[in-house]
Amino acid sequence: MNFEKYFMGKIRSVVDKYGVKGRIAVALSGGKDSMAAFHALTKFKFELIPFYIDLGIEEYSKVCMEYAKKICDILGYKLQIIKLKDYGIDFSKARKKCSVCGTAKRYLMNKFAFEYDCDYVATGHNLSDALTFAFNNLASVNILNFRGMKPVLPGNKDLRMAGRFKPLFYLKDDECMEYVKMNEIPYCKEKCPYARDAPTIELKEWIHEMERKRNGIMLNFAKSFEKIEEMMTRQQKIRQCSICGYPSYGNICKFCKLRRKYGKI
Ligand code: AMP
Ligand code: FES
Ligand code: ZN
After folding, report:
1. Residue 167 φ then ψ, to 5°
2. Closest ligand 2 atom to the C-alpha of 29?
3. Which residue in 10, 35, 69, 143 is deepest, having the highest Cβ count within 10 Å?
4. Given the CA of residue 33, which atom of ligand 1 is nearest to it?
């Protein structure tokens, strides 16, 4: 089987298994994975709405946005842009940058998809990232953070929650890279100046090393983690934030707590 067929087949298996259809907001970071996901999704019969969240991380955010615009121009789409500073949050003043960034991205992706009446928000998360995240949580005894191990999560309109769709969930890092090169897709090679530390990079290398020795082990890990997540989510109840009405595990969502901290609400 040629590579392109193999790659598209992996995405199609997710689409078919979960019956993904309709209107999809595509979260573009400018990096190789989300650009590959967007490019591949244009070959399906979806209505796609690409968007970029400008976090205001110095030059880095600007450069990434240019790449997101570039792929939209190539594929004939208009890029929607969301600015974190419009929510009163000044990233340069945030102390725990990665945590602010993570909370803001998760929240704004969902809000965007919900407001645009999308059935799903698609992200570029791939198999290598998902496993690195899972192992990192295991390594730091952070079991409660065990989520994101399913390629598709259905939405819930009553809870203002858009569905989540990870088209590249069964594809590894190097496979996404190969797709990008093969299709000459432009992408931002720069890393975020606050990129997470070396241990996760080593963890990812270790996972890939295992895969080289035992082909298929990554997929098996993912399937096991998916089962663990299923067991855990039965115990966690999602409700609505009492301030903004979007989904939250607590009374007030993490994003509203951030806005409170930065003084706008
Ligand atoms: P990360 O959280 O950086 O590992 O990115 C995971 C996925 O989230 C990417 O593949 C994108 O789909 C999405 N994403 C990350 N950063 C942004 C951003 N600034 N704007 C829109 N989507 C993003
Ligand atoms: Fe979020 Fe760097 S702090 S991408
Ligand atoms: Zn809220």
Report:
1. -60, -30
2. 4
3. 35
4. 10
Task: Report how far apart, in Å, the C-alpha atoms of 153 and of each of 94, 132, 186, 200 are.
Answer: 30, 20, 29, 25
Mean pLDDT of the chain: 92
Nearest ligand by distance to the CA of 240: 3
Q: Which amino acid is at 152?
A: V
Total residues belonging to the chain: 265
8-state DSSP, 139: H
- Ligand 2 atom with the smallest distance to the CA of 101 is 1
Give the H/E segment covering residue 15. Answer: helix 3-18
Task: Pick the range with the lowest mean pLDDT from 17-21, 99-103, 194-198, 203-207.
Answer: 194-198
Q: Residue of the nearest CA to atom 3 in ligand 2?
A: 98
* Architecture in CATH for domain 3-261: 3-Layer(aba) Sandwich (3.40)
- Give the residue among 40, 58, 148 at the shortest CA–CA distance from 94: 58
Q: Choose the residue to mutate in 101, 108, 129, 258 for probing ligand 2, maximizing ligand atoms within 8 Å of C-beta.
A: 101
Tell me the pLDDT tens digit for each residue of 132-171.
999 988 888 887 777 778 899 999 999 999 999 999 999 9
